Amino acid sequence: MVFSAALSALALSLPLLSVNALRTRRALCPDGVNTAINLACCSLFPVVQDIQENFLTNECGDSAHGALRLVFHDAIGISPTAGGGGADGSIATFNETELTFPANLGIDDILDEIGPFLLKHSNTMSPGDFIQLAGALSLVQCPGAPRIPFFMGRAQPKAASPPNLVPQPFDSVASIVQRFGEVGFTTPEEIVAVVGGSHSVAGADDVVPGLQGLPFDQTPSVFDTQIFVDVQLRGTIFTGQGGNQGETETSVLGTVRLQSDHLLARDSQTNCAWQSFANNQAAMAEAFGQGVLKLSLLGQNQDELTDCSEVIPAAIPFTGGPATLPPGLTMNDIEQACATAAFPSLATQPGPATSVPAIPQADDDDDS
Ligand code: HEM
Ligand SMILES: *[C@@H]1O[C@H](CO)[C@@H](O)[C@H](O)[C@H]1NC(C)=O
């Protein structure tokens, strides 16, 4: 007692500031402008600024959505049996191979857009690092999305990903769960958070012929839980390429629903996890952030990477309210699937039903 009191007194009398300073003191970068705790991260500041201002144009729009999708399509290219480098940038370097994979439909547009930035900064960072940095930055453009850590130091990719590792929208839940399981996503919650959460800030350019920028939920520029509601409404599903084409979502006008999201919300393996995120912003953002971080490290040894999280700006807080039902709908329109708990009770938006506007395209001229 006496001893510990004496220790506390000693601790209090020590210059606490300098102890903290060891961990948090920022030094001036060679550019004379930015400061960093780890000077090895200084070279990233101009890259961050270029991505934010010129690629993402400071918004949670089409480019941010594309950058997030690219994180997944690069990272998931690894398997214990088939090999592959995971989050290694192979989708950029070996684009001629990986863009032939059917699941990478639409990735050509994203690469066309991000490619010049990636190549411009290739002396500063590898393609794998660039894709993950752009993904982390895309999240801090979307209100409600978490700020995730960023690690630097991925080696140059060695080869293209093996084929058939990216899930497709007409895959069964069993196969989606199995594919994610192979890369270490072991609970339905972490799978559903990363798929549903990302599709909260997303839309489709290549699913419905002739229509671009069709949102997956009512709020594609806000990272919220509305996707978990909108997909649980009774309504049409849409498989996309190779499946039944021609209709868009009927419950939420202007949106489109992937069959994979529809089934994740309903299959007994995943439906309670899906429902658990509806109107649960904090849990969703947390589980999603953990999941994207996990994706960003696939095929990488975190101990060999440098933590440059300090270059990622602060997240934009969520200021929206609770999730809601579209005008005119009631809880009876929710297709209850989880057998052990009821869907959270939601209010209906006032007013007449309106169509959700399409997401403006970053590259209006080259969609095919
Ligand atoms: C079962 C797993 C998944 C399937 C089947 C799937 C499928 C799709 C499809 C078909 C599209 C529309 C592409 C287009 O037509 O342009 C899409 C868009 C998107 N996906 Fe996924 N996805 C899955 C998981 C994920 C994950 C884990 C992430 C990120 C962590 C992600 C992020 C996105 C984003 C951000 C978009 C919108 C892209 C844009 O608007 O340009 N997806 N997804
Ligand atoms: C796409 O592949 C071509 C040919 O391999 C390559 O020259 C180009 O740099 C690649 N694009 C990106 C963004 O890496």
UniProtKB/TrEMBL annotation:
<dbReference type="InterPro" id="IPR019794">
    <property type="entry name" value="Peroxidases_AS"/>
</dbReference>
<keyword id="KW-0479">Metal-binding</keyword>
<feature type="binding site">
    <location>
        <position position="88"/>
    </location>
    <ligand>
        <name>Ca(2+) 1</name>
    </ligand>
</feature>
<keyword id="KW-0408">Iron</keyword>
<dbReference type="Pfam" id="PF00141">
    <property type="entry name" value="peroxidase"/>
</dbReference>
<keyword id="KW-0376">Hydrogen peroxide</keyword>
<keyword id="KW-0560">Oxidoreductase</keyword>
<comment type="similarity">
    <text>Belongs to the peroxidase family. Ligninase subfamily.</text>
</comment>
<dbReference type="GO" id="GO:0042744">
    <property type="term" value="P:hydrogen peroxide catabolic process"/>
</dbReference>
<keyword id="KW-1015">Disulfide bond</keyword>
<protein>
    <recommendedName>
        <fullName>Peroxidase</fullName>
        <ecNumber>1.11.1.-</ecNumber>
    </recommendedName>
</protein>
<feature type="active site" description="Proton acceptor">
    <location>
        <position position="73"/>
    </location>
</feature>
<keyword id="KW-0732">Signal</keyword>
<feature type="disulfide bond">
    <location>
        <begin position="60"/>
        <end position="142"/>
    </location>
</feature>
<dbReference type="InterPro" id="IPR024589">
    <property type="entry name" value="Ligninase_C"/>
</dbReference>
<dbReference type="InterPro" id="IPR002016">
    <property type="entry name" value="Haem_peroxidase"/>
</dbReference>
<keyword id="KW-0964">Secreted</keyword>
<dbReference type="InterPro" id="IPR044831">
    <property type="entry name" value="Ccp1-like"/>
</dbReference>
<feature type="domain" description="Plant heme peroxidase family profile">
    <location>
        <begin position="64"/>
        <end position="312"/>
    </location>
</feature>
<feature type="binding site">
    <location>
        <position position="219"/>
    </location>
    <ligand>
        <name>Ca(2+) 2</name>
    </ligand>
</feature>
<feature type="binding site">
    <location>
        <position position="200"/>
    </location>
    <ligand>
        <name>Ca(2+) 2</name>
    </ligand>
</feature>
<dbReference type="GO" id="GO:0020037">
    <property type="term" value="F:heme binding"/>
</dbReference>
<dbReference type="GO" id="GO:0000302">
    <property type="term" value="P:response to reactive oxygen species"/>
</dbReference>
<feature type="binding site">
    <location>
        <position position="217"/>
    </location>
    <ligand>
        <name>Ca(2+) 2</name>
    </ligand>
</feature>
<keyword id="KW-0325">Glycoprotein</keyword>
<feature type="disulfide bond">
    <location>
        <begin position="41"/>
        <end position="308"/>
    </location>
</feature>
<feature type="disulfide bond">
    <location>
        <begin position="272"/>
        <end position="338"/>
    </location>
</feature>
<dbReference type="InterPro" id="IPR001621">
    <property type="entry name" value="Ligninase"/>
</dbReference>
<feature type="binding site">
    <location>
        <position position="224"/>
    </location>
    <ligand>
        <name>Ca(2+) 2</name>
    </ligand>
</feature>
<feature type="disulfide bond">
    <location>
        <begin position="29"/>
        <end position="42"/>
    </location>
</feature>
<feature type="region of interest" description="Disordered">
    <location>
        <begin position="345"/>
        <end position="368"/>
    </location>
</feature>
<dbReference type="GO" id="GO:0004601">
    <property type="term" value="F:peroxidase activity"/>
</dbReference>
<dbReference type="GO" id="GO:0034599">
    <property type="term" value="P:cellular response to oxidative stress"/>
</dbReference>
<feature type="binding site">
    <location>
        <position position="90"/>
    </location>
    <ligand>
        <name>Ca(2+) 1</name>
    </ligand>
</feature>
<dbReference type="GO" id="GO:0046872">
    <property type="term" value="F:metal ion binding"/>
</dbReference>
<feature type="binding site">
    <location>
        <position position="74"/>
    </location>
    <ligand>
        <name>Ca(2+) 1</name>
    </ligand>
</feature>
<keyword id="KW-0349">Heme</keyword>
<dbReference type="Pfam" id="PF11895">
    <property type="entry name" value="Peroxidase_ext"/>
</dbReference>
<keyword id="KW-0575">Peroxidase</keyword>
<keyword id="KW-0106">Calcium</keyword>
<feature type="site" description="Transition state stabilizer">
    <location>
        <position position="69"/>
    </location>
</feature>
<feature type="binding site">
    <location>
        <position position="86"/>
    </location>
    <ligand>
        <name>Ca(2+) 1</name>
    </ligand>
</feature>
